[in-house]
Amino acid sequence: MTKIAILGYGVVGSGVAEVIAMNGRHIAERTGVDLRVKYILDIRDIPGNPYENLMVRDFSVIENDPEISVVAEVIGGTGAAYEFTRRALQAGKNVVTSNKELVAAHGAELLALARDRGARYLFEASVGGGVPIIRPMARCLAANRFTEITGILNGTCNYILSRMDEDAMSFADALEEAQRGGYAEQNPAADIGGRDTARKICILASLAFGKHVYPECVHTEGIGNVDSDMIREAQMNDHIIKLLGRILHQEGGPPLIIAAPYMVPQDHRLFAVPGVNNAILVTGDATGEVMFYGQGAGKLPTASAVAADIIDCASGVPGPGPVLWSEGPSYLTFSQPDAELYTFSNGTTMRILE
User: Fold this and answer.
1) 200 catalytic, yes or no?
2) Are 213 and 274 found together in one domain?
3) Considering the domain boundaries, does residue 323 fall inside one?
């Protein structure tokens, strides 16, 4: 039996507990791993919480319990999440996470710490939510040199832009609808401003090239200036506007890494990706183009990816895990062009995806 602790009982944390309770027997039958949640850490009182008997507020209880072999960090941010992750790894415990902000900021450091302590630090859920991308890149595609990665990595922005395109909604109305439906945070600044996409493309770039890429070194644009007139103008030109993260390998120079809105042509595979879905195109020199598609956010899809990492840790596979990169030179790529520009009637310019 593998006893685990969940740090944070928000949307994802409650989803992890729910998935394990709902499918624990099925997981055991398929993988031979019997999972039990022993602790859930949260500082809040949560009325009606079905796991009230598992709740703790002091991380040291988890840190010092030798029965806990896997810690699922789903707090988010780089404050307490960073402290608790370091302490758990230093105690030799495996850590899995959906926290893209933490991985993008401290991934190399935490991977090195895990390796030194004989533990694992896994983060499948940090990029595509329920869409597997970290394992496929690290394992299934490990024989490739990656030449291009282009993806819709933020379900909130894709939902807003889809609603503006399909139903002629204003940006404000589409955002409000996304918030009502639980697809957008009450403070959506990281999503709308492109920072969430930048963090995710940094993780993929670090994995692809083996050197840590920091979000502050990546040119980042959001969708806050996209209006209904721009959506209609794109339609008239057989294009749709999508927020993309892109990595382009450049011979003899650093890779180009960017998070920005693009004009996507009608014949492109990313054109028809609707709603909160994510889609990631990975091009390897051996495989050619491979596409990963599915629901990129949400309680249970993200929890499914977190649970998969827990199962991986609990299955007894030796070593620090399939993913490793090191500190290295930052890639300052914002001054390098990556696409032809389109100029809208209002004077706004936007890249065109080839």
Assistant:
1) yes
2) yes
3) no
